[in-house]
Amino acid sequence: MSTNEKPRRSTAKPASPPPPEGAEAERIAKYLARAGICSRRDAERLIEEGKVTVDGTVLTTPAFKVTGAERIEVEGRVVGSPPKTRLWRFNKPRGLVVSHKDEQGRPTIFDLLKVAGLPRVISIGRLDLNSEGLLLVTNDGALARQLELPKNAWVRRYKVRVAGEIDVARMEALKKGITIDGVRYGAIDVEIDRVGGLNGWLYVSLTEGKNREIRKVMEHLGLSVNRLQRVSYGPFDLDRLPIGEVAPIGPAIVEKLLKGETVHYEKPVPRPPRKFEAKPKAEAAAEAPVKPAGRKPAARRDEAPGKSRFSRDDSADLTRGPTAPRGKARSPRGEAGETPRGKPGPRREGERAFSGKAPTGSGKAPAGRPASARPKGDGPAPRKGGPNAHRRRP
Predict the structure, then answer these.
(1) Residue 102 CB coordination number (10 Å)
(2) Is the four-CA dihedral 170, 171, 174, 180 of positive or negative sign?
(3) Sign of the CA dihedral 128, 129, 134, 138?
(4) Phi, psi at residue 261, to the nearest 5°?
(5) Which of the four pLDDT bands, split at 50, 70 and 90, describes residue 225?
(6) What are φ and ψ of residue 370, in 5° steps?
(7) CATH code, domain with 106
(8) CA nearest 52: which of 97, 2, 14, 94?
(9) DSSP states of 29-64
(10) Are 218 and 124 within one domain?
(11) Which member of 42, 128, 189, 239 is catalytic?
């Protein structure tokens, strides 16, 4: 080999570092899934592509175990420690797929949860596209698999609306289980809530979670499911959670679930109504807040000092009626000067009689009043002009 010849690069992959000792070590794929990087399958694929390193060494097998004290990198980015295990209740609406990736491009619940500010989470169980109701989600895959195990015997309760004739005897027989197309379904407890018209409401409880189990069983009994809502999952229920909303579950309950202890989900106790107790008048008057002195209204120029325009003036004309226009006095019935309607009264001194005909002559208005003035009694006065004159009533 000459000195000018370059050495050939070895094609052998670097050896994986020895796994650390300790009981708390876990597989690298599980660690990456708990850290929220990706799922276990995606983590295994990244390891096969050589994109995962531990302390600078490229991994070649997903069976490598880590404790979290190592420097782990995925595609050149450092992976932090996994967050604390958390659990949420989610009221799933209809029309969303319970999957991280949908082949048909339909919207998923994880798109909605991401908008709500949740980290990468995993669903505990599934609900199909047209189902709604309670769905538990967590950021710990181990907790999700633990709660899905049949040995936990967590009861799933559904509110189902069916169309068709309900046979009570066949519903009772479902408590012993049923086999449909070679598939064995466990005990199913059905309670008839109400029946009206063409539809009926049922409460269905089961401990299994097979794909479309309720729909297939009801179809076998000649019923069509047109609405399916999960109302509870084990000790957890909707508890008035609005559709599309998510609510966290307390850390104390999560710790019990991780230890495998029995959990009783206690709803927050509503506040009792305040009791009203009548107090003596002396105590109530002493506790009443003192009203601050307000600002007195300013007196008008035409008001006498010490009198308000809202005060009653006893010296006013008492002959003014409640409906009489201001400035005109209503004379009592039967007094002098009042005449029957339609008959002219006696003329005053210096007053001329009006014949009802227009005055003839040069057309000039008499001296002392403008030409636009009209004598009283010839009908309503002409309306004044303005931008809103056409809107005023005559």
Answers:
(1) 14
(2) positive
(3) positive
(4) -85, 160
(5) very high
(6) -70, 160
(7) 3.30.70.580
(8) 14
(9) HHHHHHTTS--HHHHHHHHHTT-EEETTEE---TT-
(10) no
(11) 128
Q: Which residue has the tokens 């609005």?
A: 242
Residue 189 lies inside a defined structural domain of this protein: yes
Mean pLDDT across 194-209: 89
Residue 64 lies in domain: 26-78
In a domain, residue 287? The reply is: no
Instruction: Look at 273 and 135; give whichever has higher pLDDT.
Output: 135
Residues 117-135: tens digit of each pLDDT: 898 898 998 899 999 999 9
* Count of beta carbons in the 10 Å neighbourhood of residue 105: 8
Question: Whose CA is closest to 215, among 206, 228, 205, 231?
Answer: 228
Rounded Cα distance between 135 and 124, Å, is 7
Token pair, residue 15, equals: 């050896």
Closest listed residue to residue 181, CA positions, set 228, 216, 144, 138: 216
- Short-list 244, 259, 250, CA closest to 88: 250
Which are the contacts of 332, defined by CB distance < 8 A and separation ≥ 6? 319
Is pLDDT of 344 > 60? no
Distance between CA 226 and CA 224 in Å, rounded? 6
pTM above 0.85, yes or no: no
Mean pLDDT calculated for residue range 166-177? 92
Q: Answer whether residue 65 is part of any domain.
A: yes
302 counts as catalytic = no
With contact defined as beta carbons under 8 Å apart, do 318 and 324 qualify?
no
**49-80 confidence digits (pLDDT tens):** 888 999 888 988 888 888 888 888 888 888 88
Contact yes or no for 28/47 (Cβ under 8 A): yes
Considering only CA atoms, which of 26, 49, 29, 47 is closest in space to residue 37? 29
What residue has token string 């009981």? 23
